[in-house]
Specification:
Blueprint lengths: L2 H17 L15 E5 L7 E7 L2 E12 L10 E8 L14 H16 L9 E3 L3 E13 L4 H14 L2 E8 L2 E10 L7 E8 L2 E4 L3 H4 L4 E7 L5 E7 L6 H26 L1
Parallel strand pairs: 4-6
Antiparallel strand pairs: 1-2, 2-3, 3-6, 5-6, 7-8, 9-10, 9-11, 11-12
Helix pairs in contact: 2-3, 3-5
Length: 267
């Protein structure tokens, strides 16, 4: 039997099982795969975390530097999110500059953190208009078995919560690094919940084979107050308004569960 025929049979199985309210790996439509979160795994980073979501594996590291603020926000620190799809993680990933998938991944994670105001950027100002903390969040995919967005968002949040930043003194406008550190000021805890639309069913946490047959992807990022801080649609298919509303309700419930998991792992 050809690989193409085998693939089509597998796709048909996924559709049939999901249409009956089940999944090939035994999960319900709104169940996540097992999640494991480890903190402080990169010795030279100011903060780091590894997330295993089923077989999907992602590492996030945080580096802290001192730089200049943006001109329109002179009293706030800055942060940026980058992602790298490491070639060893999937045959589909190639060496070189970040492709569209890596850029989208970083933007979705960035938007969830930024729009929820997860980091208290005003507390990262050292000298207004001149010197602020600059936070770099780097995400590396080590194994791709689906749902990189949720795994990356969890890893980024856990890494930020694990981050310690150096304390500086300011004298006559000059800053000096001390030997002491303090936690990064975190005030919100955004959680991304990703759905795949297969047939007429919306499923949570699609694994790789489900992503390969989905028509549309929807990611809903929810903050600690159950407010939506970001929504991202992927794929060429369309979603009915009712599907989006149902996804938002499910995302709020799942976000609470995942948030407790992150907090417990760092406790």
């Amino acid at each position: 039997m050809s690989s193409i025929m085998t693939s089509k049979i597998r796709q048909r199985q996924i559709y049939q099982v999901i249409s009956s309210g089940k999944r090939l790996d035994g999960r319900g439509l709104t169940d996540y795969r097992p999640i494991k979160i480890e903190k402080g795994i990169i010795e030279r980073a100011e903060g780091s975390a590894r997330v295993l979501l089923g077989k999907t594996e992602v590492i996030a590291g945080v580096k802290v530097e001192v730089g200049e603020p943006f001109p329109d926000r002179p009293n706030e620190g800055t942060f940026t999110v980058n992602s790298e799809l490491v070639p060893l993680a999937s045959p589909e990933f190639e060496p070189g500059p970040p492709n569209e998938d890596a850029i989208e991944l970083a933007r979705v994670v960035d938007r969830g953190i930024r729009e929820s105001q997860a980091i208290d950027l005003e507390k990262l100002c050292l000298v207004p208009g001149k010197k602020v903390y600059v936070i770099f969040i780097d995400i590396y995919t080590l194994n791709h078995d689906g749902n990189l967005i949720d795994a990356s968002a969890l890893a980024a949040l856990a890494a930020l919560m694990n981050t310690k930043i150096p304390i500086y003194t300011v004298e006559n406008g000059e800053i000096r690094k001390t030997s002491e550190y303090m936690p990064l000021p975190i005030r919100n805890y955004p959680i991304a919940v990703t759905f795949a639309n297969i047939g007429d069913k919306m499923i949570v946490d699609p694994w790789l084979e489900e992503e390969e047959v989905m028509s549309t992807r929807l990611t809903v990022t929810v903050d600690k107050d159950d407010k939506i801080s970001a929504i991202q649609k992927g794929g060429g298919g369309a979603l009915a308004p009712q599907q989006i509303l149902e996804a938002v309700c499910i995302a709020k419930e799942k976000a609470r569960e995942l948030r407790r998991l992150v907090v417990d792992s760092l406790g």
